[in-house]
């Protein structure tokens, strides 16, 4: 089974850099949850990874700072299912999504201006609103 994790728009994380561990899951489940180790923890050391270039590493360390340990290890947990195999797949998907999202560069904003017609409509709307308010006022007595 190939445990490499492909990242959309980025590198493929080789299985050799991943550390999988299983533990007992929390929550309801009765005897099953008490006896089986179905929770999966997936660890990937961003600092020691050979597939990242300097810019990617810096971007990941900055974007995922709240999820990375002091050793530079990103941890992902999955305990949604009773099956250890399914939790393993979920952990891999979550890691791939996290890394892909962190590596994605935001689009640069192109400043735009309202069109002439849009400006005219806005001003007409303001005039109508002002006229409506003016009609609510008491008339000024004429001498």
Summarize the structure.
The protein is α+β, with helices and mostly antiparallel strands and 143 residues long. It has helices spanning 30-35, 54-63, 84-103, 116-136; strands at residues 5-6, 12-13, 18-23, 39-45, 73-78.
Notes on the structure:
The structure is a single chain. By secondary structure, the chain is of the alpha+beta class. The longest helix has 21 residues. The chain has a domain of 99 residues: Double Stranded RNA Binding Domain. It has a 3-stranded antiparallel β-sheet with strand order 3-4-5. The protein is elongated, with a radius of gyration of 28 Å. Helices cover 40% and strands 16% of the residues.
Keywords for this entry:
4 helices; 16% strand; two-stranded antiparallel ribbon; alpha+beta; single chain; Double Stranded RNA Binding Domain; 143 residues
Q: Helix segment count? A: 4
CATH level-3 fold name of the domain at 5-103: Double Stranded RNA Binding Domain
* CATH architecture assignment of the domain at 5-103: 2-Layer Sandwich
Q: What's the quaternary structure here?
A: single chain
Mean pLDDT metric: 88
Low-confidence stretches: none
Structural class comes to alpha+beta
CATH class bucket of the domain at 5-103: Alpha Beta
Indicate the proportion of strand residues. 15-25%
